[in-house]
Specification:
By secondary structure, the protein is an all-alpha fold. The protein has helices at 2-35, 39-120, 128-153. Its main location: other.
């Protein structure tokens, strides 16, 4: 029994020692691959990155220069036509915002009407159970308020703290 137990421990220890060596060999292999990569391939990668980066930098400079030139040429035209352009831009803004608002309200109305149609036909649209619960609560609260009003009108007394109820003495100064 002890021989088997010792043998099993020896196998476990040897497995534990083999696995880290195997992992380190794996990592060494990956790093060796990186370092053994042909030097020409690394140079081509660097040259391509520099060429693309430089091209984009030149393109950004050209766009900036074109923008400055266009603004310089357009400024006198904008100044001359500004009494016409500013009111025109305001009118266009108002028209666009009006049409977008109208469209939004139209979509909202169509959605509400479709929901109401599904609710009335019994399809149980989303939120129908919540609206039923709210309507039952409102109805119960309305009946409760009506009952309290009728009871208070007859000189009754409800045990609600801080609420003036008509009581002896004509209801003057009677608080619960």
């Amino acid at each position: 029994m002890t021989d088997i137990h010792t043998k099993e421990q020896g196998q476990q220890q040897s497995r534990w020692h083999v696995e880290p060596q195997h992992q380190s060999q794996h990592w060494t292999t990956q790093s060796q691959r990186q370092w053994n990569e042909p030097r020409a391939h690394q140079v081509v990668k660097a040259a391509t990155a520099a060429a693309v980066g430089g091209s984009l930098l030149v393109l950004a400079g050209l766009v900036l220069a074109g923008t400055v030139i266009a603004l310089t040429l357009a400024t006198p035209v904008l100044v001359i036509f500004s009494p016409v352009l500013v009111p025109a831009l305001i009118a266009v803004f108002l028209l666009v915002s009006g049409f977008l608002t109208s469209g939004g309200f139209g979509v909202a109305a169509a959605t509400v009407l479709a929901w109401m149609y599904r609710y009335v036909t019994g399809e149980q649209p989303s939120g129908a159970d919540t609206s039923d619960e709210v309507s039952h609560r409102l109805g119960a609260k309305a009946r409760d308020i009506k009952d309290r009003g009728e009871h208070a009108g007859r000189g009754g007394h409800y045990g609600t703290a801080g609420v003036h109820t008509g009581g002896p003495g004509g209801g003057v100064g009677t608080y619960v």
